Amino acid sequence: FGSDQPTGAIWDGNAQQNGPAGILSFLAGGGASREVQALLAEEGMDGVVRRLTWLGRPSRVLASRTIVWEDDPWARGGYAFFDPAFNPLWRDALAHPHGRVVFAGEHTHLRWQGYMEGACLSGLRAANEILADIKSGIL
Known about the structure:
The termini are far apart. The chain contains 2 helices and 2 strands, in the order ββαα. The protein has a two-stranded antiparallel ribbon. It is elongated. 29% of the residues lie in helices and 6% in strands. The protein is mainly alpha-helical. The model has no long low-confidence stretch (mean pLDDT 86).
């Protein structure tokens, strides 16, 4: 769901996850990031859950984790955003090596762009490209 609320965009993060527990993810970017951080500081996760009752009766929160990407020195804000002017046919090119330089990151993964899975899987792909170059004598 897209929202102008402090919780920002909300989605079910259970793709390929088994079991009765669920994962609810939030993306509170821009001004919503500051709003949800203030909400968490003042009311905790219970305050966030109360603001989600429009989705239905909430289940009990088993665990929660908050990551402020703009505070992370490696992410420095978040994941790649492809605006409408970006030609989707260019997506494959983001992962192509350029000489001895290989590229990895969530933005280079076609299925999991924007997710940690994309970052990890693209890192494995890049490592395998380097190994292949070493074995073939290119590096």
